[in-house]
Amino acid sequence: MAAQFRSYVWDPALIVAQMVLLQAGYYSSLGLWLALLGTLGSTGPSLHQVFSDEILGFSTPPGRLSMMAFILNALTCALALLYFIRRGKQCLDFTVTVHFFHLLGCWIYNSHFPSTLTWWLVHIVCTALMAAIGEYLCMRIELREIPLNSAPKSNV
């Protein structure tokens, strides 16, 4: 069998490690954004801000700051997709997986399924942003020219 360009080898340990790394990066960067934006609203980051479906909203300053933190977190995690996943084809898969595990975490933390419209809108927008920007960045890396000249360059 001939060697294929960018052949993909099924490696479950690598996939699980990437999932764990992305999930840890998701919550770490979200905590960082909540802490930085919390200085504007004089509130500290808490698990309630991360997992509660009732805090997100346009009517209160903490709700707006939390929404802003989730949006900025999606942009930060798109960079994490670039550095840890590096495959445009897999960006949507890993993004949906991260947000699915976050949904499960919210469900467990609140003891009920998230039901507010704002929570769903924010997370759908964040999923779309993270996947689209991550895929765009990964595709830019994948489509770089491959240098074919292996001879050393000489100064003329």
3D structure, described in words:
The chain is mainly alpha-helical and about 160 residues long. The protein is built from 5 helices and no strands. The chain has helices at about 10-40, 45-50, 60-85, 90-110, 115-140.
Oligomer: single chain
Stretches where pLDDT falls below 50 for ≥5 residues? none
Count of strand segments: 0
Shape label: elongated
Along the chain, the helix and strand elements come as: HHHHH
Whole-number average pLDDT? 87
Strand content: under 5%
Distance from N terminus to C terminus (CA atoms, Å) equals: 44 Å
Topology:
Blueprint: H1 12-41, H2 47-51, H3 61-84, H4 88-110, H5 117-142
Helix pairs in contact: 1-3, 1-4, 3-5, 4-5
What is shown here, in short?
By secondary structure, this protein is mostly helical. It has helices spanning 12-41, 47-51, 61-84, 88-110, 117-142.
Keywords, separated by commas or semicolons:
single chain, 156 residues, mainly alpha
